[in-house]
Every structure is written in C-alpha cells, then in structure tokens.
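Re: that backbone. Tokens:
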C-alpha cells in the first residue's frame, strides 16, 4: 500500500507536524491523481497550486473578518497545507523557512524591512 492509498494518523510532537506533512506531500508528488488530491495538484501544475494557495489565503482573511475561531483554525490549516504544496513544488524544505524566521526573530519588523532595501 502506497502513502497515497492510506490515511496517515499523526502521533508525535505537534511541532513536527509541518515537517511530516511536507514529507507526505513530497511522497505523493508522483502518485495517482485519481487517488490523491495532492498528486492531482502537482499534475495540474504550478498555476493551479498558486490559484489554490491564493484562494485559501482569501478564505482565511474572510474567516478572520468573521471572527469565528473554528473557521479561522480550519482555513489556516487549509492555507498551511497549500503553502506546503507550493514549497514542495519548488523543493523548498520547511527548514529553509524556519531558518529565515529564526534570522528575523528578535529583529524589529521596521529594521528587517529596511535591511532588504527597496
């Protein structure tokens, strides 16, 4: 049974869920689009992945405006999943994002933006 044919139950450190989900996404990249939503996104290509990521971002914004906690959590989960699909498309490991966030940690947002220049 391939990873695209079964449901994976997460058991472990909640902090590792993004890394585990990223690995599942990578595993499903070349899977059957008939059995895996993730594989279907990769098969449809970058434009579809970008469109879905944008749609999920908008849905999160709308949920945030509505203020219902459970809807915000649900939509944030959708956005994070699609963001990981986008990263996997470009073979960008979550660790690269963690490293960038660590670099910015403790630096004022104003100073960080100024460091990038115009």
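Recovered sequence:
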């Amino acid at each position: 049974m391939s990873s695209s044919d079964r449901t994976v139950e997460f058991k472990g450190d909640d902090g590792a869920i993004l890394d585990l989900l990223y690995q599942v996404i990578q595993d499903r990249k070349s899977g059957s689009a008939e059995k895996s939503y993730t594989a279907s996104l990769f098969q449809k290509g970058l434009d579809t992945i970008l469109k879905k990521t944008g749609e999920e971002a908008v849905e999160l914004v709308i949920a945030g405006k509505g203020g219902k906690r459970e809807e915000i959590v649900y939509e944030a989960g959708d956005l994070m999943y699609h963001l990981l699909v986008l990263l996997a498309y470009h073979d960008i490991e979550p660790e690269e994002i963690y490293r960038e966030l660590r670099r910015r940690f403790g630096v004022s947002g104003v100073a960080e933006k100024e460091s990038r220049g115009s």
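Residues 1-6 have pLDDT under 50 and may be disordered. The radius of gyration is 16 Å.
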